[in-house]
Structures are given as C-alpha cells and as structure tokens.
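Researcher: I'd like a candidate sequence for this fold, 427 residues long. If you have to choose between options at a position, lean toward the conservative one.
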C-alpha cells in the first residue's frame, strides 16, 4: 500500500516500485476502488483493444476534466469523440501538418534571432525561451500566421497560462476530493473561468475575421459526415484542448531533451555535426535527414514520457489474461515502468540515443508509447515531432549553448515537468 501513497510524491518511482513488488499486473484496493496496474506491453495492448471494443473507457475523468476541456478530443467519448476526431485529424496527419511548416520555421527563427543577438557569456533561460516559442507556434497555428499581432497579445498568453496551470488542481479536487476540495481552489477556479472566458472571446473574434489558413477558421468550416459544421461550443472546446494537450507536453519534452544532451558533450557534438550538415533552411525536408537527433528525441521521450501512465476504467466485468476485473475498476497502463523495464531496455536509466538507431525488438516497439496507443493515441504526434525537430535543429545550428549540468528532478504535475528552470550560457 505504501507504493500507492508514493504516487502522490514520486509517481514515476511509485510505478516502478509497484511493478517490482507486485509484478507486471498488480491489483490494489484503494478506498473501496479496485486499481489494476499493468506494466507489460502485451496486456496493455489487450486493454487498448478492449477500449476499441467499447468495454473500457476513460469516463471517470470525464466530469473532472469537463469544466476545462469541455467536450474537446481529450475528454469526449462516444459519437461526439468519433466525430471530433474525424474532423480534427486531417489537420494533424503526416500530410496535413505541411501547412504548419511555415509557422514552425518562422517562429523558431525568431527565437534564434533573439539568442544570436545576446552577448557572448549571457545567461539564457532555456525553459522560458522554449515555452514562449511553443506558445507562439500554437497561437500562430490556431489563429493565423500572416498576422503577427497575436504574438503580442499578453492577455491571451496569460489566459493560456492560467488555463494550463488550473487543470491539475481542478483534476485533483474533482477526482480525489470528489468535488468537495473545489472550495479550496475557489480563487484559482475563478481565475481559470475568467481566463477561459477571455480565450473564448478571442477565438470567436478570430473566427469572425475569417482569417483563412488558421486552424480555428479551418475547423469552423469543417463539416462532419452528415454535412453539419462543428458547433461553436465544440470548436471552443477543441481550441482549448489544443493548448492544454499540445503546450506543456512539448515544452517539457524539449527542456528534457536539451537537459539530457547538455549532460553529455559527445552526444551534443554528434547532434550538432548532424545538424550542421544541413544546407539552407531547416524545414521538413531537412529534419527527415536527422536520424541521430531524432533518436535522441525518442530516447528523451523514453526516459521522460509526458504521460507517466494511461488511466482507463471499466463499467463492466472484463477478463484480462484469465483474471477477472470487477466493474468499476481503474486500469492504469504504466508507461513509465515499461519505458524503464530492464527486461526490455539494456541500461534502462541511461540516456543512449543509439538504441533508437538499431532495429527495435517486438517488446521495445510494443512498450514504447510516449504518444499513447490505441484509439486515443496522440492526434498531435506528427505535429509535435516535426515541431520539436525544427526547433532543435534551428537552435543548435545557429547558437552554441553551454547547457547547465545542474541536476533537474521531475515535478509533480499532470505532465512529467522539469522541477527547476533549465539555463545555459551563450558561447
Ligand atoms: C511531445 C509532445 C506530446 C506528447 C508526449 C503527447 C502525448 C500524448 C498522449 C500520451 C496521449 C494519449 C492520452 C490517453 O490515451 O489518455 C495524447 C493524446 C492527445 N494529444 Fe498529445 N502529446 C504531445 C503533443 C501534442 C500536440 C502538439 C497536440 C496538438 C496540437 C496534442 C493533442 C492531443 C490530443 C487532442 C489528444 C487526445 C486524443 C484523443 O483522445 O483522441 N498532443 N497525447
């Protein structure tokens, strides 16, 4: 039981302890609820298949997330989710993301210009630079890249910050406190509500200017199979979802990436020399050639997956590998433990990009799920990968940074967030 309590203070280690002490399928009773932790890929796949068949879902989080996510993709279920996914996915497919290349490149170059403008020996707050860059990219994609006025709308930026920060306490209050804890977060909730109101009015204003090419306008024009457009309410929910799902996950991954390569000079240099081979603009064609850099990014996501676990529940009795799971149980797919399983990865705690250059074993392919898996896998996967590689390549090609080697531990949050700021000195 002590392993469960550790989930509140060090969730990654707790997931590893659960696997070590109770095996790859571990069940607990917690305040009358059955919890079932899975840390092997074959059983995880079965659960995700059961999700596809409608026997497993994520309903228990639905009410907790509803105030912030509404019926956005991250939260919705049934026909609403399927409809939304069909309408949103084309803008994030391998081909669909080509339309966002210009925003990725131009915003990355703005960060490069600001860094190259600094004096040699200046301190660089990498965490802040990366967060601001990702926010500008998401705003550019969502509201249009031809009009840069948005990037100076500080009220929009702080409302996005408040919404993203408000999610974790609101989830805690709703899930652990069954709604009662809500009163403790009264002020924060009020701030979140005001921020959401501002964000909604901003989206509405942008859509009304019919700014062709922005995701908000494209979504407003999309029709579902029956020829109906997305309702205004769903459009607003989806816009918020893109920021909630796409901001911190990407910022944190980039910070961990620079942190990890900053610890190992030889790895940094290999990445730098691969990137320096690129001639001209760093766009989609160029990043396709960055095999080692991409391997280092995957290795970052193996060590620091943004979702430590996928949580599901079942409202019907199900059979998993001959074990009966009661209705009302929660199923926790332990991504963190699978990513650090010594039976699957040699030296699982070490940062070894080379392992992603080799042919992966079946167990490695099945266990590696930084973007989730199954029907709810990350819709922004191709977007995030291309965005991160363009950012990494643009910065490393143009600016030489001595990244601080100060230890950074993860912080408790919804995502696997670095607990301190990452800094660097410009050479
Ligand atoms: C490094 C960056 C990212 C990581 C590691 C990541 C990870 C994930 C994971 C693990 C899930 C599955 C959650 C579950 O099954 O419960 C997910 C779902 C999702 N992600 Fe991402 N994500 C990233 C970036 C993005 C971006 C950039 C966007 C959008 C612009 C995005 C949008 C979504 C959405 C909408 C879902 C829900 C999909 C659904 O339920 O149908 N993500 N992501």
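Model: Candidate sequence:
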């Amino acid at each position: 039981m002590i392993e469960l309590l550790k989930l509140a203070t060090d969730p990654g280690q707790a997931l590893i302890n659960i696997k070590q002490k109770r095996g790859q399928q571990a069940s607990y009773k917690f305040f009358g609820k059955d919890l079932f932790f899975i840390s092997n890929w074959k059983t995880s796949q079965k659960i995700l298949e059961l999700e596809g068949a409608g026997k497993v879902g994520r309903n228990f989080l639905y009410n907790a997330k509803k105030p912030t996510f509404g019926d956005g993709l991250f939260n919705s279920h049934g026909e609403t989710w399927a409809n939304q996914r069909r309408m949103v996915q084309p803008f994030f497919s391998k081909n669909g993301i080509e339309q966002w290349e210009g925003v990725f490149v131009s915003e990355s170059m703005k960060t490069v210009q600001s860094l190259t403008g600094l004096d040699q020996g200046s301190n660089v707050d990498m965490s802040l630079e990366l967060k601001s860059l990702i926010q500008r990219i998401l705003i550019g994609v969502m509201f249009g890249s031809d009009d840069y006025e948005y990037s100076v709308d500080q009220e929009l930026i702080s409302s996005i910050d408040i919404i993203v920060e408000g999610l974790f306490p609101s989830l805690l209050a709703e899930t652990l406190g069954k709604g009662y804890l809500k009163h403790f977060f009264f002020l924060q909730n009020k701030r979140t509500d005001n921020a959401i109101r501002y964000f909604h009015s901003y989206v509405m204003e942008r859509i009304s200017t019919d700014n062709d090419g922005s995701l908000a306008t494209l979504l407003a024009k999309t029709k579902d199979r029956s020829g109906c457009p997305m309702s205004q309410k769903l459009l607003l929910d989806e816009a918020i979802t893109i920021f909630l799902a796409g901001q911190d996950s990407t910022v944190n991954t980039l910070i961990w990436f620079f942190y990890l390569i900053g610890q190992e000079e030889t790895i940094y240099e290999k990445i730098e020399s691969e990137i320096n081979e690129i001639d001209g603009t760093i766009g989609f064609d160029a990043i396709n050639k960055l095999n080692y850099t991409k391997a280092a990014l995957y290795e970052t996501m193996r060590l620091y997956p943004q979702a430590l676990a996928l949580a599901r529940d079942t409202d019907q009795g199900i059979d998993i590998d001959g074990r009966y799971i009661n209705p009302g149980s929660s199923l926790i797919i332990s991504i963190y433990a699978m990513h650090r399983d010594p039976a699957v990865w040699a030296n699982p705690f070490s940062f070894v990009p080379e392992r992603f250059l080799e042919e992966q074993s079946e167990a490695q392919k099945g266990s590696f799920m930084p973007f989730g898996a199954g029907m709810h896998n990350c819709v922004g996967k191709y977007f995030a990968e291309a965005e991160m590689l363009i950012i990494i390549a643009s910065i490393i090609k143009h600016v030489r940074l001595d990244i601080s080697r100060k230890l950074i531990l993860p912080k408790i949050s919804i995502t696997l967030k670095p607990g301190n700021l990452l800094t660097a000195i410009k050479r």
